[in-house]
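User: Before I run my own analysis I want an independent prediction to cross-check against. Here's the chain; please return only the structure tokens and, at the end, one sentence I can use as a sanity check.
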Amino acid sequence: MSVALRKQVDSESLPAEAGGVAFDRRHGRGAQTNRSGRFENLAYEPADDGWDSLFDLEALQTEVQEMPARQMITKNQSPDIGFDRSINPYRGCEHGCVYCFARPSHAFLGMSPGLDFETKLFAKTNAARALEKELAAPNYRPRMIAIGSNTDPYQPVERRYRIMRRILEVLSAANHPVGIVTKSALVLRDLDILQSMAKRGLVKVALSVTTLDRKLARAMEPRAATPEKRLETVEKLASAGVPAAVMVAPVIPGLTDSEMERILERASVAGAAEAGYILLRLPLEIGDLFVEWLKANCPDRAERVLSLMRQSRGGKLYEAKFGDRMEGHGPYAWMIGRRFQMAAQRLGLNGSVPLRTDLFTPPKRPGQQLRLL
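Assistant: Structure tokens:
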């Protein structure tokens, strides 16, 4: 392996194979490369030794490390999102969505937000116990907990670890409200719990749908459910009495924005009760990763997409300012927002399903005395 001092990379002139990860090794993954995270002093890239040794490397496999959590509820004070607390059962996500704004968090672990993010995962196996302890704290006050706002709680490894199901069992027992976002049909595995919570006004589930183009979705979100499967999941949730929503997220100008009305129409037919959207966000390392992917997979549209992104982000590919980061600004961003509002209003998807907090029953703490009456 060659070692070089880390330097700033101009992502828009970077070849798709920069980083030295051959297609056969990363087949079925979203990121094109695996460059070191922003906190590393050195950058590591594979280099051929003259014997074609890179072709002998095996395909990247998903590795999962069990990671005990001291606490599960993460608080935020962001004024532009509709919740102040969230839970993430996993770090990293095997779905491999190239645009995922959780990718930069892997840099805090000394790993790459690129291929490491989708192949080196961390499972919080004691999540349910840690959550139960937090909910039992005397000063805890219930508000909706968001799950799936960072990494997907129903990504493929959930089939084996079942962490999300145990979390739902704790929340259901405590009558605690929860909002779930996912790209996976695996959420239907827990339909028994979700139905029970829905009858008490404690849950709603949103499926994220970026595009209806199966081929584009496969390249952009390689291990997530197909768009059709996600809409089918919305229909099954709604039919079972579970409030379902669709997130048109992210909206990518010049690539997927033309599909927004069709996605909302399909969501309405499937029985969705509400909808939302987020303009593509490219903070930190995601900018490089997305540009690499775009030039490799959509070279004919790359320059237009990047141009429209800059028009919506004050001349940059990303603006982190609260409010602007979700919807952008400028004429093109305004047009996307107005189109969404008009379509959502026409289809009756512009409301919001309220969840109850008044039923909350804290879990009993170890050694806690039972109530007399």
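Sanity check: Confidence is low (pLDDT under 50) at residues 1-19.
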